[in-house]
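Hi,

Apologies if this is the wrong queue. I'm a grad student, and the batch job for DUF1800 domain-containing protein from Stieleria magnilauensis produced an output file that my downstream script rejects. I'm not sure whether the problem is my script or the file. Here is the sequence I used:
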Amino acid sequence: MPLRTGAWIRLLVFVLAVGLNLPAVDAGTFEVDSRRDVAVAKRKIRAAQFLSRATFGPNLEQIEALAERMAQIGTRRACEEWIDQQMALPAAYHRPLAVDMIARDGLNSQQNDAYIQRYRYHAWWHCALAGEDQLRQRVAWALIQILVTSQDGAGFNDVGAGHHSGEGRWLGPTHYYDLMVKHAFGNYRDLLEDVTYHPVMGVYLSHMRNRKTDEAANRFPDENYAREIMQLFTIGLYELHLDGRLKTDESGNLIPTYDNETIKEFAKVFTGLAFKPHPNATGTGRFWWGNEFEEPMEMFDFEHEPGLKTLLGGEVIGSETSVDGDADIAAALDNLLAHDNVAPFLSRRLIQRLVKSNPSRGYIRRVARKFNNNGQGVKGDLAAVVKAVLLDPEAWSGQRLLGRSRPYRVQVIARGTDYSTLSEPVIRYTRLLRGVHATSNHHSGRAMLMSQNYNWTQEPYLSPTVFNFYLPDYQPPGSLLGYTPSRRIPNGFLAAPEFQINTPVTSNRLAGRYIWDISNQMSQQRWSNSTSGISHSSDMIFHLEDEELLCTEDDDMHELMDRFDLVFCYGSMPQDYKDRVVEVTTAETAWMKNNPTWRPRMEEFRVNAALMATVLSPFAAVTQ
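Support response: The file is valid. Your script probably expects a header line. Output copied below for reference.
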């Protein structure tokens, strides 16, 4: 139940008016009782900062557990140990989970009257919110935004059979997503090969049934996948130094990594692939008769472009006397991965998706070196790369933690624009649900969330283009007044990718979702089909009982705000803001203390107000 309307309006106006006008470097403060507690508070902030990148959002217990381990073996060693433990966990896959969820609800994947495709979202949200393998799931979410497909491709929502088991064709994109889960800590070369052969990618970027040249019929190989595997998946448009700086020629011009002739040559490589054929297909009909969306495409050499192909660096592959399409693809992938651009290109993108929008040249270079050599002579080891991204000193440098005495306290100084990133909407919402220990009331106990794309224009499987939800170099319109980017950032400009989908509409819808959920202390998930009578109802219930215990006495709410700051803002919320939230919230609820009707709800209203003021603030949206 909400507070009186006027109270909510005043509180939300305060959030906007005060929060948006506080300088980025304003200090947050955690008051403690002793010098020892100063060190404890610092470790908790570092733990929260780390877990915000390595998971879909921490809760207080996870923060405190990692902070305690930091006290025992040191901050970096504790985080590295945590990573190693996460990498050792079995992977939670989305496709089998979705099928099991469907069966538990008494449905089947080819059912046409139950919006059956919603189970792809149910499975994704459950893995993100409840999966033990949090790091793997978070890295998979980063990879799927590089190796993009979308459910909006041809036939990707069909409920007809798309697998030999008889499961619905719509499960194909979920099976593709699981490649990211499978290879999250594997080798990028192996991931790229599986992506190349997956029928969902084959359909999405149209190298499925890509045929060899027939000049008489004016038919030439499709160039779509050949272009995107270079531009988006491996090397980018222009040559790079190892630290992410763009190379230039003697005239100061950027140096393209490939040209149209290179695209044509790679297009020849990606010919001859088609669905795994139907068991009854024979002869050349095997190329045309198939609809298998969860088995790798097969190579049909009679439709593969014969002859030599000249690739990057002038390398020539293929043969003038025989045709071996699979060998050509393997050689082409090796050719791509051997290019000097791959390491800095992919390193920057993974840093952007996991840590910050504008990594320095040194940060990119250090991660790129690890991509090129994991220490054992192996290139493309994603486990080594992820560890390098998360443990780099720059990943910690967005905040300065200063221990003070008289009184004992920790001051947190956010270092500003160069070190920050706007959190993507999906991550902001998972952080809320995980931070409040949300649990499902569905009979299976699983998080059965529906698609949230309407609220904030971002959802798994719904990228609008192959370029992802936002471009890695996107800059909001207008000049960045009064601010000069650090020379440490390559190429002299600041990017803010997530701002591309941060519009007035999406901001209002996100705020509306937060207000609704927090007011009711649950995330409601409802769907029904009036024709079939089939309905879906499951809620994610918030658990804020411990936080409500800090709302009885006015002064205790300062401890509550420190807790919310730690869990949702990772120490970056300015002290003035926290104090003002306590002041406004206690004033607006003071009338309840002596009102026998409303007194039992005072703690609930206070914790809701404080939580709302936290997660709607810029300090939760922009992380350092």
